[in-house]
From TrEMBL:
Domain of life of the organism encoding this protein: Bacteria
Molecular function in Gene Ontology: methyltransferase activity
Transmembrane segments: none
Protein name, as recorded: Class I SAM-dependent methyltransferase
EC number: 2.1.1.-
GO biological process annotation, one example: lipid biosynthetic process
Pfam assignment, any one: RMNT_CmcI
Keyword set includes NAD: no
The entry's keywords: Methyltransferase, Transferase
Length: 209
């Protein structure tokens, strides 16, 4: 078996095991692969974001993880996390603002625009509805908020056979391809895929200054 076949076979096995749904940060469920969590840590330390916008909160484990990374960096950064659903017992943290609404609703974008204009370095993570059309809409709406040299991270581009869950249908990977065709100021940063397995292949989009 070639190396990339081994990696893809493990990725598919790992994903299908569902262990990512049992992954926790400080007792809170976080739907992330630990390799990607480490990459987040490396990016945050380099970029030092003042504002992180996350679409798709789920139980708030990812927001808490990011807030605590910012604590470790003694940063002034904060996190706005957006979801259509409320969940009981989401973690509370001074840096985290939970916002209820659709990521693509006009009032949500207005709120994000107001916060983004007060912040020097903004990083965006898209982790809500993973259908191609929704993610593409998010990419089109949120790319304007990303600061130069910062990141627009598209989560879960591994589905629809990239290399797992082939029956998903057009998803984040297809939206990335469509977005990059007409947005030449973003480039895939493949160096963020160095741990071989990432749930976000071609999903670490760097804004070029
Ligand atoms: C994959 S989960 C988020 C996982 C979380 N970021 C984590 O890492 O643990 C997706 C979330 O997106 C939310 N969602 C679905 N459609 C949405 C929309 N249009 N706007 C905002 N959130 C949405 C769902 O309610 C769900 O909580």
């Amino acid at each position: 078996m070639k190396n990339d076949e081994v990696v893809n076979a493990f990725h598919d096995f790992y994903y299908k095991s569902g262990v990512w749904e049992q992954t926790k940060w400080m007792g809170h469920t976080i739907y992330k692969c630990p390799f990607d969590m480490w990459i987040y840590q490396e990016i945050f330390f380099e970029i030092k974001p003042d504002l992180i916008i996350e679409t798709g909160t789920w139980q708030g484990g990812s927001a808490l993880y990011m807030a605590q990374l910012l604590d470790l960096m003694n940063s002034n950064g904060k996190i706005i996390t957006i979801d259509i659903e409320d969940f009981p017992n989401r973690p509370q943290h001074d840096r985290i603002t939970y916002y209820k609404g659709s990521s693509v609703a006009e009032e949500t974008i207005e709120m994000v625009a107001n916060e983004a204009k007060k912040s020097k370095t903004v990083l965006v993570i898209l982790d809500s509805d993973h259908s191609k059309d929704h993610v593409l809409k998010e990419l089109e709406l949120y790319n304007q908020f990303v600061s130069d040299n910062s990141y627009l991270i598209v989560e879960d581009s591994n589905v629809n056979g990239h290399p797992t869950y082939p029956e998903f249908g057009p998803g984040p990977m297809e939206s990335i391809d469509a977005f990059l065709e007409s947005n030449k100021n973003f480039k895939v940063d493949e160096s963020r895929e160095k741990f071989f397995i990432t749930f976000n292949p071609r999903g670490y989009l760097k804004k070029i200054a």
